[in-house]
Amino acid sequence: SNMAELCVRSVLVTGANRGLGLGFVQHFLRMPKPPQWIFAGCRDPKGQRAQELQNLASKHPNLVIIALEVANPASIKAAAAKVGEHLGGSGLNLLINNAGVITSKMLDAETLEDMMETYTTNTVGPLLMSQAFLPLLKKAAQGSPGSGLSCSKAAVVNISSIGGSIASCFGWE
């Protein structure tokens, strides 16, 4: 079914300050029936790179910017608590794991630290996020009518840009 039929009461988008993440936030805001809550996760909510998000949040009371570093378990835990506060008794319908990092270095310049950070953010991050927000997702699923699986009940969506492609690996050529 298309996005117009999607009925989402609450959504969290990680890496929401630019690129695909920001695009998702803008799309949700423009929906005929926008979510009651749109949580926009980004590393530095008050920083220069989140300027566009800040502008949107000042116009849309349903948009809440959340400080979130997906490679940091303490940051994820704090974000889940903050989202839970805003939601009160209702759960989170949709978690969109979009945050990612990419370092394009030549093979001889690659480092263990960079590879670990990339893996932690892009691979372990979505797992930690899904675990931390699972109670809120379950709460939303239980509280929604109908049976079966649906983004309108509760769902986790893991997405990647072409930056995550193995087929078009640029950097080590």
Automatic annotation (TrEMBL):
Pfam families: adh_short. InterPro entries: Fungal_SecMetab_SDRs (IPR051468), NAD(P)-bd_dom_sf (IPR036291), SDR_fam (IPR002347). One of its GO terms (molecular function) is oxidoreductase activity. SUPFAM superfamilies: NAD(P)-binding Rossmann-fold domains (SSF51735). One of its GO terms (cellular component) is cytoplasm. Gene3D superfamilies: NAD(P)-binding Rossmann-like Domain. PANTHER family: C-FACTOR-RELATED, SHORT-CHAIN DEHYDROGENASE/REDUCTASE. This is DHB2 dehydrogenase.
